[in-house]
Amino acid sequence: xxxxxxxxxxxxxxxxxQDNIDMFYQEVVKYMEQLAYCFELIFVDDGSSDATPFIxxxxxxxxxxxxxxxxxxxxxxxxxxxxxxxxxxxxxxITMDGDMQHPPEMLPLLISKWEEGFQVVQTVRIxxxxxxxxxxxxxxxxxxxxxxxxxxxxxxxxxDFRLLDxxxxxxFRRFRERARFIRGMISAIxxxxxxxxxxxxxxxxxxxxxxxxxxxxxxxxxxxxYSKTPLRFAFYIGxxxxxxxxxxxxxxxxxxxxxxxxxxxxxxxTASILLLGGLQLAGIGIIGEYIGRIFEEVKQRPLYWLRAExxxxxxxxxx
Length: 319
Ligand code: UDP
Ligand code: MG
Fold this sequence. Notes:
Elements: E1 7-14, H1 21-32, E2 38-45, H2 52-62, E3 66-71, H3 77-87, E4 92-95, H4 107-115, E5 120-128, H5 133-149, E6 158-165, H6 166-172, H7 182-189, E7 193-200, H8 212-226, H9 229-258, H10 266-298, E8 306-310
Parallel strand pairs: 1-2, 1-4, 2-3, 5-7
Antiparallel strand pairs: 3-8, 4-6, 5-6
Helix pairs in contact: 5-8, 9-10
The chain binds uridine-5'-diphosphate and magnesium ion.
């Protein structure tokens, strides 16, 4: 069904992964050479401060199948993936992490699913070896919240290890937003999708690059990009509070008109002012979050810029 001159692109964002790249390269080559396809291995260096860009350059010089895109600074994992997807030329493009947590031995399986005719082969992490209780818990909570709140369904444990047919990649390139949550975008994009499960091993070397702050930003990007529920939430709370205050006012009037009680209402008033004040601030905060995102998007800044490019194919693929 597929000719031998079909090209498979493998896109790998790397950020300070100097101790992983060589090992990763060898493993990918080992599994890809067993298949009948040509391949290109694209490392997207996300502004690393260690030797990563030099190693990428060395590999690109030594092996014509390797390309290096060196970004001018750290733009984040999702933008690095986007940059790789803009430059990939393959009939199918596989995105994966460079720390061995997305096992290269699964490459033939992903490709065989594509040969069966699936255009998106999504991998699902059923477990991560050595993941802290906190990371697993927050990750699960995030997916539950995201799916409850938004109209796109993101698979729990869905990772950025996936294969996309070139038709899907072309559609992906038409997404214009800055704040990117690629899992949501792919889920919303449609086409023939399938899933395969895997257990993510530990990192080969180094530490996770995702701090709690980065995870939180990532989660907020995901939720605000695909859900208006938080905005509605502020509205519903406002309605509930509005009704409650009518009831409260009636109660106050009743006491004033029909009883002889004095005015010891201080506690009630203070409590209701505090409650309403808090809720108003929360509502304004939610609106502010969305307005901030509108502001970021309307500036229409470039998503990233490159400092250097190594390897054979230099023309860009963007549009
Ligand atoms: N990464 C990146 N830019 C960043 C953070 C991470 O390109 O700002 C890369 C990193 O080098 C790795 C992949 O994204 O190849 C996944 O990152 P990491 O392993 O730190 O995430 P985790 O597996 O802990 O979720
Ligand atoms: Mg990792």
